[in-house]
UniProtKB/TrEMBL annotation:
<dbReference type="GO" id="GO:0046872">
    <property type="term" value="F:metal ion binding"/>
</dbReference>
<protein>
    <submittedName>
        <fullName>Ribonuclease isoform X1</fullName>
    </submittedName>
</protein>
<dbReference type="Pfam" id="PF02130">
    <property type="entry name" value="YbeY"/>
</dbReference>
<keyword id="KW-0255">Endonuclease</keyword>
<keyword id="KW-0479">Metal-binding</keyword>
<dbReference type="InterPro" id="IPR002036">
    <property type="entry name" value="YbeY"/>
</dbReference>
<dbReference type="InterPro" id="IPR023091">
    <property type="entry name" value="MetalPrtase_cat_dom_sf_prd"/>
</dbReference>
<keyword id="KW-0378">Hydrolase</keyword>
<comment type="similarity">
    <text>Belongs to the endoribonuclease YbeY family.</text>
</comment>
<dbReference type="GO" id="GO:0004519">
    <property type="term" value="F:endonuclease activity"/>
</dbReference>
<dbReference type="InterPro" id="IPR020549">
    <property type="entry name" value="YbeY_CS"/>
</dbReference>
<dbReference type="GO" id="GO:0006364">
    <property type="term" value="P:rRNA processing"/>
</dbReference>
<keyword id="KW-0862">Zinc</keyword>
<keyword id="KW-0540">Nuclease</keyword>
<dbReference type="GO" id="GO:0004222">
    <property type="term" value="F:metalloendopeptidase activity"/>
</dbReference>
């Protein structure tokens, strides 16, 4: 997009009519600076930010309400409710295309995470200075793949919760590229799911338990 002119909010917000008295212009400008200070640069104790949950597939049934509730609970346990988060549910065809494009693997999979804050240490909570940086990133859930690989005694929505936990941990710097990194990720997922279970009664096992 061309940047030939300043954004409308800036070009209009800083404009005052020629007849405005000097004292009013001064007060208005000070108020404008105050708003920028309050809204542009953020302070601790922000309210919970948005969770965008989109279902872009029709291959398998998906009730978004229970998944949303579980993800909201996971955000609270991980201490990241003040960050925006996107959860996108897709079928095998779309997941395979994303996996091929970004990982060079021409197969569908269960989850892919795209962190907004790269190079975090495992478990590090981002410390943004500006509103636009209060974003964790996006998680693509391969719900068709997950549905197809559920065992007979497994609940589909429980496995979605476990998979979302795994994806969230990836957004917070956890990996399973080495055995040491996997151990950290496994322990974190286990801790989070145990905490969730204390509230819901569910006994869920980490997705990463069988990776090494």
């Amino acid at each position: 997009m061309a940047a030939s002119s300043p954004p409308a909010s800036v070009s209009q917000g800083c404009c005052f009519p020629f007849w405005t008295p000097d004292w009013l212009r001064f007060i208005s400008l000070r108020f404008y600076i105050f708003l920028i200070a309050k809204c542009g640069r953020l302070r601790p104790g922000r309210a919970a930010m948005s969770l965008v949950l989109r279902n872009l597939q029709r291959a398998v049934p998906l009730r978004r309400a229970p998944l949303r509730r579980q993800v909201q609970a996971l955000r609270g346990i991980l201490g990241v409710r003040e960050f925006d988060l996107g959860i996108i549910c897709v079928d095998n065809k779309r997941m395979q295309r994303i996996n091929r494009t970004y990982r060079g693997k021409d197969v569908p999979t269960d989850v892919l995470s795209f962190p907004f804050h790269e190079n975090l240490e495992a478990g590090e909570i981002p410390q943004p200075d500006f509103a636009d940086d209060y974003n964790l990133g996006d998680i693509f859930l391969g719900v068709e793949y997950i549905f197809q690989h559920c065992k007979e005694n497994e609940d589909y929505y429980d496995i979605l919760t476990v998979t979302a936990t795994h994806g969230l941990c990836h957004l917070l710097g956890f990996t399973h590229s080495t055995e040491a990194a996997w151990q950290k990720m496994y322990q974190k997922e286990k801790q989070v799911l145990e905490e969730l279970g204390r509230h819901t009664g569910a006994r869920l096992q980490p997705l990463s338990r069988g990776l090494f």
